[in-house]
Structure formats: structure tokens, C-alpha cells
Amino acid sequence: MNFVNRHEEMERLERVAQRDEAALVVVWGRRRLGKSRLLAEWCARHGGTYWVADESAGTIQRQYFAEEIDAIFPGFASVVYPDWTALFSRLSSEARQVGWRGPLIIDEFPYLVSAARELPSILQKWVDREKREGGIMLALSGSSQRMMMDSILNSTAPLYGRADVILKLNPILPGYIGQILCVDDGSSILNYYTCWGGVPRYWELSQPFGKDYLAAVDDLLLSPLGVLHDEIDRLLRQEMPSAVPLRPILDAIGLGAHRSSEIAARLGLPATSITRSLKQLQELGYILREVPFGEDEKRSRRTLYKLADPFLHLWFRVVAPHRGALQSASKEGRLKLLTNVWPQLRAQAWEELCRQAVPHLKTTKRNWGPARRHWLSQGHEWDVVSASLDGRAVLLGECKSLSRSARSTDIDKIVQDLMAKQAPSLQILDGKKLEYLIFLPVLETPNHPLPSNVHLIDGRDVFAALSSAATDT
């Protein structure tokens, strides 16, 4: 798959390389997001070396590492290094003799730390010395987010404060799906995003299926033989320490419990007992905390928790509750389970995409701030609410994930319902102009004018915004 999107991340890495001095770079985040690919691309640009740790013993790891370095400094692997201090000292000496600066990339760093707990302290001293003497650029990467935080990012970690660049990789912007999977209409791109979210590894796996997203989902995910059938269990197990004990909370959210009290009730636990687990799942990137637009994120009592991306929604709605049925079902039976929940999954994905796109839309006359939902326990819910950056207007948006092109009759009905809907009771609306946006994946041009404060946004607008967002940051 072509290397796309990571413009800002690569720019930061390039600035490190241009400074002509030693540096420590840390790249972390969930698995499958392209950390290794980003670092491999950067490494290739500068003649560095890239090494991936594994779960072997420390002595074996040092031998493997020395053999990788031997490609740069012949004879490096002919020595048996009694510890990591000796190895890194020799590496510094060899590099200074020839002016080699790297980058030296160590991927899956947590595996090294699990075999050598002293390694972060050793690297602390080594990094400090390299920075004083103008030595090597070192990049550490890992997908075990807990271990990366404990080893580098927590205030008590030996390497805390040493990093010149810290990159937490997030999913790729959805606007690039069409480019990678060769689809160009809003409805098709939305279908793919509903399946795979912004995870590049899943895009790559689905490429051979072309435009047949249902065949891709069945083969890769629904089939018991599919490479992604056990994906969530695998990801949780690979955290260090394992995050498998957090799995029941994900199941409860996937089944429709979104308040902490509801989640705890599903598990038969007091609500206070899951507070720490909810925070851990947020830190690991598996769930998001949501509050209504206009409320303080720290103080709001109307907090909801939701799964963080469409693939998680899909897995916990189709695979997790139907493991037994999927074992023996035909392809038609498996796809039936998917189609039963597909409209809801697609609608959730479309709403999230529209909210993400609002600050980057080029087709409106105003510039908008971040968008959120707004809801009350009783009353109307709005899919999209945002305030203009000039402070003069408030945007109220509705998202309709029609699977066909929206016709004039559809648009007329949506506009009629929209104008009849009660605006949210928010102080921010006082004295502001109301602008209404209707988001539709594919639409026909209406055959008569719309009200001046109502605007139509289609999938092309949304996905264009979610491509340009990479250059707006």
C-alpha cells in the first residue's frame, strides 16, 4: 500500500534529522496504525538502520541487534556483549569514527524492556551522553501502550523528559480511503470506512477485494478463518501487561451501555469500581468519552462512553455476540448477521465523519470550530453542533446516511423536519445566527432553492475536508 497522510509526523521527523545533532524520538500508539511504516520510510531517507525486537532472552536480543548493526559497521557482531551498556558504548565509538548519525530505530521496544528492566536507565545515560557529544538519533517505538508509558512517558520513567519528539499515531484521515481503495463516490467510501475505520493495515488487507466491501468483510472478519476474526482478543493480549481483563467493559459498550452506571450494571459491579478501567481504555485508544456540546468536558455529568472507531463497533456488534453462529454459518448466513446491524453501523460512522469534517469544510462561507453532538435526557438530539470562529453563528447539522442518492423529495422532507425541530437550549445560541447543514453521502441537485441558511454537504465535501485536514494542522 502506498505511504499516505503522515505529512505532519514526517515533517517533525525531518526537522530532527536536519538539526545535525543527537536526538531521541518516541513513536507510540495502537497496533496496525503504521508506526513501523512511518519509521521505516524515515530511516530509508537518511541511511539509518531499523531493528525490530522480539520476545527472546536478553542475551539473544543483543546478538540479533549486533548482527543488524554489523551491516553498517562490519565486525560489530563478532563480539559477545555481556550487557547493553557495553553494546551501546561500542556503537557510539564506531559511529563517531565515521560520522554516522542514524537514525537508529528500535521497534517493539517494550519487548526489550520486558527482558531487561534495566534498559531504560541504561539508555537514559547513553542518550544524555550522545546529546552532549553530538551523536546518534535514536527512535524508540512500541505498540504496547502501557509499557511505552511506563518506560518513557510517565513522569517516574528514566527516559521521561529526554525525548525531542513524541508522536502518538492516530488513525489515518478517512479522506484517503478513496485514494487507497480506488473508490470515488461518497457512499462507497463511507461503506469502507464503516468496515475498517482509519486503520491502514485493514485497508491494506481489503485491497485485493476491490470495490466488493462485503466480500472483504466476510473473508477477513466474519469467517472463523479470517485473519481479523480474533483481532480484538489478539490486540488486548499483546498489551503488556495484558489488557484482556478490560474486555468486559468493551463488550458492555458494544451492546449499547454508554453511561458508566449502565456499563457497571451490565457487569454486576458498582459504578465506582470501573472508573480506573474506563480511563485505561481511553488511554489505550479503545473508547472515547463524550459530553454534549456546550458543556464542560471535566464537569459534565452527562458523560457517555463509546467505542473509538468503526472497526470496534463492527467487531463488537457482529463477531463478539455471534461467535458460535459464525462457526457454522454459510457465507449468506454470516452476511445476514451483518446486514441486520449495517444501517446503524453506517449511520454511526457517517455522523462521526461529519463532525470530524466540520472544522475543515471548504464549502461553507464561515470557519467553524470543533463539532460535537448535543442531547438531553428528554428532547431533541442534534447530530452536529459547532460555533463559528468569528463568534457570530452556530451550526446545527443533521446527518442522513442514505445508501442511494438523495433526491429532491428526500431533501425537501429533511429540510421540513429540520426547520420544525427545536434548537438546543444553549446559552451560546443567544443572539447568534443559526446555520443549518444537512450531510448526505450522495445527493442530486435540488430542483428549487433552499432557505438561505440551509446548506447541503455531500460525501465529496466531507472526504475532501478529511484529506485537507492533514495540511490544516
CATH topology of the largest domain: Arc Repressor Mutant, subunit A
Low-confidence stretches: none
The biggest beta sheet is recorded as:
5 strands, parallel
Percent range of helical residues: 40-55%
Q: Given this structure, which CATH class of the largest domain is correct?
A: Mainly Alpha
Q: What is the strand arrangement across the widest sheet?
A: 2-3-4-1-5
Total number of β-strand segments? 12
CATH superfamily descriptor of the largest domain: Winged helix-like DNA-binding domain superfamily/Winged helix DNA-binding domain
Please tell me what the overall shape is.
globular
Could you say which structural class the secondary elements and strand pairing correspond to? alpha/beta
Number of helices: 20
- Reported CATH architecture of the largest domain: Orthogonal Bundle
Estimated share of beta-strand residues:
5-15%
Estimated radius of gyration:
25 Å
Number of domains: 3
- Measured between the Cα atoms of the first and last residue, the distance is 24 Å
Mean of residue pLDDT values: 89
Describe this structure in words.
This protein has 473 residues and is of the alpha/beta class. It has three domains: 7-168, P-loop containing nucleotide triphosphate hydrolases (Rossmann fold), CATH 3.40.50.300; 175-345, Winged helix-like DNA-binding domain superfamily/Winged helix DNA-binding domain (Arc Repressor Mutant, subunit A); 354-472, 3-Layer(aba) Sandwich (Trna Endonuclease, Chain: A, domain 1), CATH 3.40.1350. It has 20 helices and twelve strands. Helix 9 packs across helix 20. The chain is globular. The relative contact order is 0.09.
